């Protein structure tokens, strides 16, 4: 029997691996699928709730790593994961996305001679100041299976000289999860509980250090969101680090009346909140994909994106980090200047099934 170990560490990882855990059940007589939670996200609302909502099995291993600098976190994950790999000797390690857990697991497995599958391979922002970009590049270099979500990933991997036999265009497992929960997302009453008019409010999320760790940047951001909130009610589920900075920078007492700050939400609630929004303003990678799939207008407050299909095909507007441009784009969209968008190729809810089939068909 083949042993496959999936390593998750942060909120987006759970969303990407959940459908794979289900897909491997078809092969339960041939494969033992194990789950390792590194504990990179240790806030209960940011991780534990996902195992319940996404109907994932409880992790077989929990490394309990927690926070720290990039170096500290990556090193602790490597040290603890090595013990698991030595004990289990899996035939394959699956790593999703681009967080520190992804890089750490790929490095440890590679040095131990264990094959690696990277889910969401080939995405590139071409901005090496982003830690995620380094994680993506290094993980792809050492991986044996490169599972790609969009055509740009295929082009990037080929340009970097990757072997074509390693590259598989399979679609997006994050969309698999969204699709499988769509009925629950549509029936969730988060808009009723927050007293929001469907299609007439804005959602915002921010967590990147460049936007929330600098006093001047965060102040400017909150002021901009405040002006948008004068046009539409604006809901802002606040990442723990962003909440801490809002408090430390003395911004709590300056919130305009139309701006509603909430605690981080569970998966179903947050997707439902986005599903019925008129506009989402964010610096998240995954939200660009989810809004594209749901046909919701999205403003991405970054200089670049590793997910260009959301701009070329979807509903994403990449506007940079100038708050004047963010505000103008928001007002234009609220005034009716929108992108029609369509669902990208192979974002059909079946990516995990394709991945599992490729892994199980592979002969040593």
State the main characteristics.
Rossmann fold, globular, alpha/beta, 13 strands, seven-stranded parallel β-sheet, 17 helices, about 375 residues
Question: Overview of this structure, please?
Answer:
The structure is a single chain. The chain is built from 17 helices and 13 strands. It has two domains: 2-172 and 347-361, Glycogen Phosphorylase B (Rossmann fold, 3-Layer(aba) Sandwich); 183-334, 3-Layer(aba) Sandwich (Rossmann fold). β6, α6 and β7 (167-169) form a beta-alpha-beta unit. α1 (11-23) crosses α7 (173-180), α3 (70-88) packs across α4 and α4 (100-111) runs parallel beside α5 (131-142). A seven-stranded parallel sheet has the order 3-2-1-4-5-6-7, sandwiched between helices. A six-stranded parallel sheet has the order 10-9-8-11-12-13, with helices on both faces. With 364 residues, it is α/β, with parallel strands linked by helices.
Q: Estimate the mean pLDDT confidence.
A: 94
* CA-CA gap between termini: 13 Å
- The CATH architecture designation of the largest domain is 3-Layer(aba) Sandwich
Overall form: globular
- Count the domains: 2
Helix content: 40-55%
Weakly predicted, low-confidence segments: none
User: How are helices and strands ordered from N to C?
Assistant: EHEHEHEHEHEHEHHHEHHEHEHEHEHEHH
Largest sheet: 7 strands, parallel
Spatial arrangement of strands, main beta sheet: 3-2-1-4-5-6-7
CATH class bucket of the largest domain: Alpha Beta
Radius of gyration from the alpha-carbon trace, in angstroms: 20 Å
CATH homology group of the largest domain: Glycogen Phosphorylase B
User: What fraction of residues sit in β-strands?
Assistant: 15-25%
Tally of helical runs = 17
What is the tally of beta strands?
Answer: 13
Q: In CATH terms, what is the fold-level topology of the largest domain?
A: Rossmann fold
- Structural class determined from secondary elements: alpha/beta
